[in-house]
Amino acid sequence: MRALLHALLGASLAVMSVPAAAAADPLAPTGRWSANTAGQAPLPPMGWASWNAFNSDIDEEKILASAQALVDSGLASLGYRYVNIDDGWWLRRRADGRLIIRTDRFPSAAIGADPSFRPLTDRLHAMGLKAGIYSDIGRNSCGQIYTPDFSNQPEGTVAEREVGLYGHVDRDIRLFFADWNFDFIKVDGCGIRGLPADAPHVRSGMYRALTPLVDMQSLGVTDVAAVRALYQEVGEAIRTHSRGRPYVYSICLWGAADVRQWGKDVGNMSRTSDDIQPSWARMLTNLDTVVTRALYAGPGAWNDPDMLFVGTGDFDDRHLTQARSHFSLWAMLNAPLIIGYDLRRMTPALRAVFGNAELVALNQDAAGNQAVLAYDSDQVQGFVKMLADGSKAVALFNRTASPVQALVSADQLKLRPDADVALRDLWSGRQQSFRGELPLELAPHETRVFRASGTRRLPGGLYLSEMPGSVNPAEDGVPQPEADPTIERSITPWMGTRGSGEHAQYAGWGGADADRAPYRKLLRIAGRAFDTGIGILANSRLEVRNSGFRAFEADVGVNDSGRQGSSPVTFEVWGDGVLLARSEPMGFGDPAARLAADVAGRRIVELVARSADGATLAPSPVTWGNAALLR
Ligand code: GLA
């Protein structure tokens, strides 16, 4: 039976080298990196945005004063360059389709018959900064649909108040990028979510209905392909109208429409959750939507757990432990570092948080690896991040309001436990070293972050889980997106404790993970556990960037979290579109098989796991155990 399957798979592989068939087969290797690299986000974007500081109550004075504060405080020279105008800038869409700025709030825009942001972006550029603008993928904006007491709402007739991109993509994007010279755009998604025919705003005649494409409560109802197509169209328009100038395209879909799977292919950063609030529990919610998604981020496209709320509420300067935790976690996880605080009021203590150059350096590390969740519990989490210079960063995070004992462990760092590990505490500057394990106490809500160097367990190579920024789950095998049930459910300020409470709503459950099997299970094949590797579902294809490595090795098999009697899975290693190695079909319970391939000179290595029964709603979890590239 096995031999037969193998032969059949071999035959189908031969057929699949025909281009037409290849196009139809999502597992057919392409020899290229398919995640987005257009635009200008080789590192997570850094800057400031108006929303968390001012909501829509914005004006030119606030924007320019914030920009000046970035420069005067030295934060701009640390990398905080984007100054992003969020909701609240637009007055109306004129009959000829042109968007009109609120010149009462932005007086420099009043230059004749066609108000323009060009004077403002020129000022920001002259200050050495970059400028960001905000729009919506639908006809109407978030503020119009969801915020009744919003200042600066668009005015006029129903048509004049349709300020979103829907039906105006080319014209608006040309205006923002070619005419107004913006460098960044955030495209929100409320207009394709909140205006069904029976919405009160539609029935009252305020806005036109737009059949929702996004339903936060139901992925089954959400039209993922249509949502993706709209965002893709905007991406293409930006490419055209930026005319070779660098830009950043920020997708704001709050983890809906399965965007955690495809945002990386379309934008430069993509929101994974609903809005952050200045509350500890809500920060945890947003954090949880990115922690297991290291493989879905990398140079060019980053996971965005939302803007920083350092400086406000639970993260103000009377709560510096919490402020440092929020900042440390965002830095480790390669979140865009977008300050959401009124910088005109910045205290030295808050300046010291935003301005911790060693933390910023972790976020801006050239290797672009989002930290991997190395230890997980509801109380303490440990994150490890491989840096470009071969050293590591490790963060231990206390989620709770009580002190807790924790350990820095050489094993979790994939450093040898029998050799010295040197640590530098990035908040205190203290140096120390240990062997094996270092016990430490975490204060309530504290995060300790260290730079660590020791003797690598794999001296001549990198485990794939150490280079998540260079691994792209082009097909992650998830047959139908599911909401992630492990994300912290917090009390939202907009609901309080009304209704039935929070529930799983952010898609991303069951995707590819570093050092874990899908659904947060252990990597284990026929009883043999692996503390490193990539876990993914069958019917998947991973793209791996190879920068000068000679060999690929892994121990492969169906993960023990699968099911008895499931269909066998064949593992293939490809290099630049050429098949280099293939396993026998492997069933549930079969011991791991070693797969090795010579990848010298191959730029893109692809790892395909194909189940014999083809597309299925219940693909087996599979393990690329010890997966590594070797020099
Ligand atoms: C949505 C976004 C926020 C902000 C507001 C503006 O809620 O998620 O980040 O842009 O809209 O109205």
UniProtKB/TrEMBL annotation:
Known catalytic reactions: Hydrolysis of terminal, non-reducing alpha-D-galactose residues in alpha-D-galactosides, including galactose oligosaccharides, galactomannans and galactolipids
Keywords carried by this UniProt record: Disulfide bond, Glycosidase, Hydrolase, Signal
InterPro entries in alphabetical order: Aldolase_TIM, Galactose-bd-like_sf, GH, Glyco_hyd_98_carb-bd, Glyco_hydro_27, Glyco_hydro_b, Melibiase_C, NPCBM_sf
Family to which the UniProt record says this protein belongs: Belongs to the glycosyl hydrolase 27 family.
EC identifiers of the protein: 3.2.1.22
Transferase keyword on record: no
Pfam families from the UniProt entry: Melibiase_2 (PF16499), Melibiase_C (PF17801), NPCBM (PF08305)
Gene source species: Sphingomonas jejuensis
Signal peptide start-end: 1-22
Domain Glycosyl hydrolase family 98 putative carbohydrate-binding module intervals: 483-631
Superkingdom: Bacteria
The protein, known as: Alpha-galactosidase
